[in-house]
Amino acid sequence: MKSAFHPKPLRYPQSWSELPGGDELKQAIEGVCDDLSQRVFGYNLVKLGNLSSEIKLPGCAIRNQVAQTQTAIENSSLISYSDNLPYIENSIDGFLLTNELDFAQDPHEILREVDRTITANGYVIISGFNPYSLTGLARFLPIKKGNILHQARFFSAGRIKDWLQLLGFEIVEHRHILFSMLFASHHKGQPAAWQQWCSRYCPWCSSVYVIMARKRTYPMTTVKPKWKVKPRFSAVGASMRDAASRVNGN
C-alpha cells in the first residue's frame, strides 16, 4: 500500500470559515452526516478535529458527543492530536471525521487509532474532497493561492475505502455532494434540481464525498477436521485365536 505520510506538517484549518464557501460546505456535509449518524447507537461519539467539532448531529441517538480538537476553540471539549487518541481500546461507538484526513500529515496513523479505540460494530463517518472534481482540478491553477484549500490532500474515495477495508471495516454507504467549484465565490447555492441531476448522472464529479463504514469483528471458532485417524493395527478376531490354540495343541 502506498504511503500517505507527508514530510512536512500541513496548514490546519481552525474553522469552516477559512475554506472558500465554508458555510455552504459545512451545511451540506452537516445534513448528510446528521442523516447517517441516526444509525449509530451506543454511549460515546467523537467528533475528531476542528472541522468535525462544528458539525451538529441532532438526529444522533448518542448524547455523549466529544468534540476533540487540536487547539482550544469555542466548540472543543477535549484537546488532543488525532493520531494519538486518549481513549482506551474498544471504548468509542462512533467517529466523525469531516475532512480531517485531507489536512493530516499521517492519515494512516489516524485511522489506526480509530480502529484501536472503536468498539466492535462501531461506525465511522468520513468526508473528503474529491480529486476528480472541478475543485480538485482547480487546486493546480493559480486561483486564490493563499487559501487553505490548496493545502488539502484530496484523497480519492476509493483510496479511503481501501484503507478502511484493510482495517476490517465494511463500507455501508457512499454519498456525493456539492457539484460546484469550491474555489469560486458563491453568493447563493446551486439549485437543488441541478444538484440532484448531477448526483444521479455524474456522481464522480462531486466536490465532496461522505463515506460511512462499520467495524466488523468476526469471532474465531474451532474447525473440526472431517477426516478420522485410522489405527495402524487391527484387533485380532476370536476365530483366529481359536485356530492358533488348535495348532499349538496339535
Keywords:
Rossmann fold, alpha/beta, seven-stranded mixed beta sheet, globular, 250 residues
Structure description:
By secondary structure, this protein is an alpha/beta fold. It has one domain: Rossmann fold (3-Layer(aba) Sandwich), CATH 3.40.50. It has 7 helices and 7 strands. The chain has helices at residues 22-37, 50-53, 107-117, 134-138, 157-166, 192-201, 238-249, and strands at 45-48, 65-69, 78-79, 92-98, 118-129, 169-177, 208-215. The protein has a 7-stranded mixed β-sheet, with helices on both faces. α2 links the parallel β1 (45-48) and β2 (65-69). The longest helix is centred in the N-terminal third of the chain and has 16 residues, at 22-37. The radius of gyration is 28 Å and the shape is globular. The N and C termini lie far apart (82 Å). The model has no long low-confidence stretch (mean pLDDT 86).
